[in-house]
Amino acid sequence: MTDAQRRSYERLFPYYSIPFEEKSLDFSLIFGSNNATIIEVGFGMGVATARIAEENPHINYLGVEVHRPGIGKLLWEIERRHLSNIRIIEHDAVEVLAAMVPAASVDGFHFFFPDPWHKKRHHKRRLIQKPFTSELAAKLKPGGYVYMVTDWAEYGEWALAELSATPALINAYPSGFAEPQSWRPKTKFEEKGLLQNREIRELFFRRPP
């Protein structure tokens, strides 16, 4: 962690964090509103998360991350941008969904460049695969969505197959991959991937109304 990230973490984390516990969340109490709630899994350094939240003050964002420097950076962004619609859980996302997120309570899930675990023997560690995709579907409200973007083409194909095989989800782009979403800002990670001539794959699936 940089000194700035450490200071932000130590000073701001108690105000914007939710402790992990085996107890269902009430988003209206957490955010003080009945606005739509989006969960971002693995927000990295959180800059894109902060920008999206700043541009959509009518939406609540819950970030789940285990990388403490990234949490410190996002907390710094929250203070700098005067954001009140972001909360953070520092814990494993699979356990958070299973223990804390009520069924049919989430309006959308964001996965921005999740770890592709590109070696074949590590594929079992990938987040976007069954049965986790079924868990995501169960947590979505009718009409809610799962949005993923990756710069690892093979992982994009993998995720497309896994999400397509999840009965409770329907591809919003029946031809395959989604069009670039204009509301999502580019990340430094994405720019680095483009410089290495990697192709960006986007997926957008919905739970039917």
What this model shows, in words?
The protein has helices at 3-16, 27-31, 47-55, 68-81, 93-100, 132-139, 153-164, 188-195, and strands at 36-41, 59-65, 86-90, 106-112, 140-150, 170-171, 201-206. The chain contains 8 helices and 7 strands. The mean pLDDT is 94. It starts with a helix and ends with a strand. Helix 1 crosses helix 4 and helix 3 (47-55) packs parallel to helix 4 (68-81). With 209 residues, the chain is α/β, with parallel strands linked by helices. Helix 4 links the parallel strand 2 (59-65) and strand 3 (86-90). Helix content is 37%, strand content 21%.
| Mean residue pLDDT | 94
The general outline is: globular
* Largest pleated sheet: 7 strands, mixed
Give the CATH architecture.
3-Layer(aba) Sandwich
Main β-sheet, spatial strand arrangement:
3-2-1-4-5-7-6
The low-confidence parts are none
State the end-to-end distance: 43 Å
In DSSP terms (H or I, runs of 4 or more residues), the helix count works out at 8
CATH topology: Rossmann fold
Going by CATH, the homologous superfamily would be: Vaccinia Virus protein VP39
